[in-house]
Design brief:
- It is a single chain.
- By secondary structure, this protein is of the alpha+beta class.
- The chain is built from 18 helices and 21 strands.
- The strands form three sheets. A seven-stranded mixed beta sheet has the order 2-1-7-6-5-4-3. It has a seven-stranded mixed beta sheet with strand order 9-8-14-13-12-11-10.
- The radius of gyration is 32 Å and the shape is elongated.
Length: 472
């Protein structure tokens, strides 16, 4: 706050007479200083419970909120505290553990001076409170100013913009509990279809995602679900299938921030969905042009933090991937994709390797184990062969009716398997040098290395190799 202090001295040239009027005396008095946030609350009878809570909680919050700031405090009324205590089984404020009370109160403090007009201008979105979530991340607060200004869809501003010397107070009619990732989804109307799907799917996913976690949830918005359903009522979707699709949007056991993803650049994570053999499905991310998952789903709102994890809103539902999904999504396989499509038009490799059903007339049934050469592996060839030989080479990289993960290989030792082309390949563990494993191909070459393993799709698994295998 800005205060101007005026000192007026009137000097007589003769130094013989000096007169001061009563008006001059009033100009010399100091104006009343603007109270800080704590003093403002102490002077407001309907915030006495808040003052008592600040005094009792861990963290010396009275001193903190008397500091320089700036702060924005969402101040629950006495009635709001009474309702909060009753809803959570506390007879009085003294029954609330002081560490919990501190976190609840900090969830009402924004480390910036935010006016109601700022919120109205933004419309809706997220800001960070001061409560601590997983990995020390600040828990997010959702606001919606499309009508009355609301926070987390539970608390409405009843008195806005109470001005303090170190920030602003907005009085609200409910205490903001500490939100889980599910609470955040429920609070934001843009996730109403996601919330409905979580409730309808097998596996009691609402309770699962309300658990300890931590979880990283890729949350499709309502538009994404509408596109995915394409007119099919949610109630007509098989609930077991729906559960796996939803779990394919959940990374269990870690809080993966957008910063973590950007720093990594690209790579794979495992989701909560299950593929062949009960193996966790893989999820590919790439941050070269925004944060994109499996090559189709872009993050539109990052880093919404709850007590048990983090949400990234995405614009597309991420369906169960096939081995083709990963080949197309990962730019390291762009030459392989060209070989499977443009360079071999007589064989529908993309269609074959996208299959999820067995009993095909050509007997080329999933699950598939694919040994995927990188772009550099193709570059190392003297030339890419013509369509006929190339087709046989590509078939030499696929094993049908088997989801052979790295844990299934003889270690130490050799594992031999027949490819779609007909020749065997032999995998030797451990590998030489930096290779995870070595491969002997149909031609007898032994200098082929597996450099990454177990990219798990819904219809098979991919292992990455550093040279193209040649059949006999």
């Amino acid at each position: 706050m800005k205060t101007k202090f005026f000192f007026i001295a009137l000097f007589s040239l003769s130094l013989l007479t000096t007169s001061c009027s009563n008006d001059d005396d009033s100009n010399n008095s100091n104006p009343t200083p603007t109270p800080n946030i704590v003093e403002l609350a102490q002077a407001t009878p309907d915030l006495s419970s808040l003052v008592a809570a600040l005094t009792r909680a861990d963290g010396d919050l009275v001193t903190v909120l008397s500091g320089n700031g700036p702060y924005t405090v969402l101040a629950p009324t006495n009635a709001a505290f009474t309702a909060f205590l009753s809803a959570n089984g506390f007879a009085s404020l003294e029954d609330v553990p002081t560490d919990v009370l501190s976190q609840v109160l900090l969830n009402h403090v924004i480390m910036a001076d935010v006016s109601s007009s700022d919120l109205v201008t933004m419309g809706s979105g997220y800001t960070s409170g001061s409560a601590s979530g997983p990995d020390g991340l600040n828990i997010s607060i959702y606001f919606d100013a499309s009508g009355s200004v609301m926070f987390n869809n539970v608390a409405t501003v009843t008195t806005a913009d109470a001005d303090a010397s170190n920030g602003t107070v907005h009085i609200i009619d409910a205490v903001l509990g500490l939100p889980s990732v599910v609470d955040h989804a429920v609070a934001n109307p843009a996730f109403s279809n996601l919330v409905a799907a979580l409730g309808a799917a097998d596996g009691d996913l609402v309770n699962v995602l309300s658990g300890t976690g931590p979880f990283t949830v890729l949350a499709p918005d309502d538009a994404a679900f509408s596109t995915f359903l394409n007119g099919t009522p949610l109630g007509n979707v098989d609930t077991a299938v729906l559960s796996q699709i939803l779990l394919n949007h959940v990374i269990i056991g870690s809080t993966v921030t957008s910063t973590t993803l950007v720093d990594a650049g690209a790579g794979y994570e495992n989701t909560g969905a299950s593929g062949p053999g009960g193996n966790a499905l893989s999820l590919y991310y790439n941050t070269s042009n925004g944060v994109i998952f499996n090559g189709i789903s872009t993050v539109t709102q990052a880093d919404v933090v709850g007590t048990n994890g983090i949400i990234h809103a995405v614009d597309t539902v991420i369906d169960i991937p096939t081995v083709v999904t990963f080949a197309v999504a990962d730019p390291n396989f762009s030459t392989l994709v060209t070989a499977l499509t443009t360079l071999t038009p007589a064989t529908d490799f993309a269609g074959i390797l996208s299959r999820t059903a067995t009993g095909n007339a050509d007997t080329l049934d999933p699950d598939f184990t694919v040994f995927a050469p990188t772009n550099d592996a193709f570059t190392a060839l003297a030339a890419i062969p013509a369509e006929g030989p190339l087709t046989q080479i590509l078939l030499h990289h696929v094993i049908k009716e088997a989801n052979i993960t790295s844990s299934m290989l003889n270690n130490p030792g050799d594992t031999t398997a027949a490819t779609l082309e007909g020749d065997n390949i032999t995998i030797t563990l451990p590998g030489s040098g930096s290779n995870i494993a070595d491969i002997t191909d149909g031609s007898g070459a032994t200098d082929i290395g597996i450099v990454a393993v177990d990219v798990q799709a819904g219809n098979g698994v991919i292992h990455v190799i550093n040279k193209v295998m040649i059949n006999n």
